[in-house]
Specification:
The strands form 2 sheets. Strands 8-7-6-5-2-1-9 form a 7-stranded antiparallel beta sheet, with helices on one face. It has a two-stranded antiparallel ribbon with strand order 3-4. The protein is of the alpha+beta class. Helix 1 packs parallel to helix 4. Strand 6 and strand 7 form a beta hairpin. The longest helix is centred in the first third of the chain and has 10 residues. It is built from 4 helices and 9 strands, in the order αααββββββββαβ. This is SMI1/KNR4 family protein. InterPro entries: Knr4/Smi1-like_sf (IPR037883). It comes from Streptomyces cinereoruber.
Length: about 170
């Protein structure tokens, strides 16, 4: 339902992105949220409304949320406030999107409690907020709900668009 709302909001024509979910889930040692998989398969990775970078599961590095666990890149901070970065088989946050204003959108994951993925969002002021909603509902509210504060961007009057990352666009 929420993925469909995002498609309607952006006017994006669904494109088919083949994703090896078994490999990603094996690497992270957790099953991933079903609606996130749907988002990735329909959108790939890219930018919503010229402001929100969505880290799908793409072949390149810019929009690939699994990459921090695959390559020796500069490490993410191990801790941001009271939350730890996720380590496979453990618990912590996994970032799946960010905004041009410095907001970060993550899941709070515990491998001992698979299937539970509250959204954890951190704004530019550094405050963390936890939301009991799906990835696609959170993303839709950020983009389209003027009252979804402090993370909503609808009040800025940005065009409701999606621009795929260069490695994500199979067209």
């Amino acid at each position: 339902m929420w993925v469909q709302r995002l498609l309607e909001f952006t006017g994006w024509e669904p494109s088919a992105h083949s994703v090896d979910w078994a490999a990603a889930e094996e690497e992270l040692r957790i099953p991933l949220p079903t609606d996130f998989k749907q988002l990735c398969e329909v959108f790939g990775g890219g930018t919503f409304s010229d402001s929100i970078a969505f880290y799908g599961r793409t072949a390149g590095f810019r929009f690939n949320f699994v990459l921090p666990w695959q390559a020796p890149l500069p490490p993410l901070p191990a801790e941001i406030g009271q939350y730890q970065k996720y380590t496979p088989g453990g618990k912590g946050y996994i970032k799946w999107a960010s905004s041009e204003w410095g907001a970060e959108y993550c899941w709070l994951v515990d491998a001992q409690q698979p299937g539970t993925y509250p959204v954890l969002a951190r704004g530019e002021a550094g405050e963390w907020c936890e939301y009991d909603m799906s990835t696609s509902e959170f993303l839709y509210r950020v983009l389209a709900d003027k009252d979804f504060q402090p993370f909503g961007i609808a009040q800025y009057g940005l065009d409701p668009t999606f621009q795929p990352g260069p490695e994500a666009d199979g067209r």
